[in-house]
Amino acid sequence: MKAMMIATLLLGSSMALAQTAAIHDIPADQSTTIQITKGTVAPTDRDFDIMTSTAEIQGEPNVLTKGARDSWKKACNDWKAEVKDLNKENSILALNCNSPKCASEANGTTCTSTGSYQLKVKIRK
Questions:
Q1: Domains of the chain (ranges, CATH numbers)
Q2: Is 102 helix (H, G, I), strand (E, B) or coil?
Q3: pLDDT score for 9
Q4: β-strand partners of 122
């Protein structure tokens, strides 16, 4: 009986050694990753970050749908050329105009799309 009480006390005390961590002030509106490591943490060697964004591409209105599409293609090519001109450090990873959506309006048909791009951006330290 006495041995059983000692075993119960030892078992109960080993369970009480579990560690807890209090985590406060983490915004819930974004994705969060919490990493717990034992020992020293190696510094990150990354000196850049990947930025993904979009831009609105719109052609000039035209009476004909074909003319509106041609105008959009020109606007797409101009946008790509402008982004590439600003790319001094060869940091463009992806550049896409996506598919146009053409809509008829009072002054003609206009084609628009949401272009997307991905850039490698230096992290300032």
A1: 48-122 (3.30.1660)
A2: strand
A3: 47
A4: 48
